[in-house]
Batch of 2 targets.
Target 1
Amino acid sequence: MSEIHKFLFEGLPVRGVLVRLTDAWREILSRRAANTTHGAYPKPLQNLLGEMTAAAVLMQSNIKFDGALVLQIFGDGPVKLAVVEVQPDFGLRATATLNGTLDDAATLSQMVNVGNEGRCAITLDPQNRQPGQQPYQGVVPLFGDHHEKLEKFSDVLQHYMLQSEQLDTTLVLAANDQVAAGLLIQRLPMQGAGNLAGGSSYAHEDEIGRNEDYKRISLLASTLKREELLTLDADSILHRLFWDENVLRFDPLKGDTGPRFSCTCSRERVSRMLLSLGAQEVDSILQERADVEVGCDFCGQQYRFDAVDAAQIFRQPDQLPPVPGAVH
Ligand SMILES: [Zn+2]
């Protein structure tokens, strides 16, 4: 089952989140693999999209925001777009667009940052957006301080967090064809005078101490190996890393309250679309091929309607349930 585990370090301004996606991640992969147009993701792209999915859930669980969090990479290489959307209730979906083929050993820059023009965007789209209100979007390049190409997606996001939120963040991400997982450790913003003073954040002995606490915990977190993150359960990981710290854990979010696959597409929705297309148009497609096939751009699910299905739609249009949230 897919899970989110939040925790605090007692008395220290440091918090953490551990995410493990299993069923939710496998659903994303199996829909894509079953798609007769695109087929399964090549391994390096699968792993990148998995790391992005784990990271998007980590970020959504770490902010107080009522709206969708969308994490995107706009690539300048064979991978043009990779996108993950996580709703406030942790319903999630993800997809990627690949032109051509990928080597099994393709690196991050070979996929999305060939000419160092690749970008990563994080968008927060409020649930009930007012007319004229723009979603918040932050964009970062896929290179470091000296324009060197970054080869770990976690480094790209750590950069983003430091720049946009001015929060020290340590991220460990990993994915394979079964699990997408991530660990986030973050230093909480300093409170009161120390924070307002600006300039020197090392003004007080106390704050020096606190910074050391974050560094120690961050260092422990960064020893977590990819294999451990993919294979161990949350209890084992947290114990192995932080056995000497006072970790306060919250109830895990799983099942109905946890991360799960969710896409707005459905057979009913596609039926409605065919209905609005008209019987003539649908018939003319069916004269050329055995069925009308409509694929969801976001999850890869394909919906097929043969002549009998189509006739059903046009004979009994009133029996179709209304589409929630449909735009007219
Ligand atoms: Zn879909």
Target 2
Amino acid sequence: MRARQATPAELRSPRIDFRLGFGIVAPNRRVNAMTTDAAFQRLAKSKFRSRFRLSEADREYIAEKGMETIRRHAEDFVRTRLAPAHPPNDGRQTPMRGHPVFKAQHACACCCRSCLEKWWKVPKGTDIPPERQSRIVDFLMAWIERQGCSPKPAAAKKANESHLTK
Ligand SMILES: [Zn+2]
């Protein structure tokens, strides 16, 4: 695909860089593409973000529910707790534990609108459009997978058990 010049309207309002996870391009700035790997490398530099880990209980919950269900939960949390321009209780809407997606949100700096703005340049006070919500969910699910939860954990566990009992 050929690159084209941004239109004046696009330069006035920030636009989404689709090569980024869900960041936006500031007016008149060059696109600063960031891969998911680069985003995780950035997060790894933060003591606070990098200390989050899934517990055994979280893993069991994920294995029991399946990754598709966990993704639906993540979609719901992002849509209802982050996406509105002014989410209720912003800054305190994401508990530190209680659901694996909550931990992913803190680990990925997707816990509140201030963190989304500070880390990923998602502007506060604006609705997050559905396509960017999906990018956030992709990112959270990538973190969960990196914690060693594969898309088919239940099957993997069974195979492992049968191997051990033989
Ligand atoms: Zn936050």
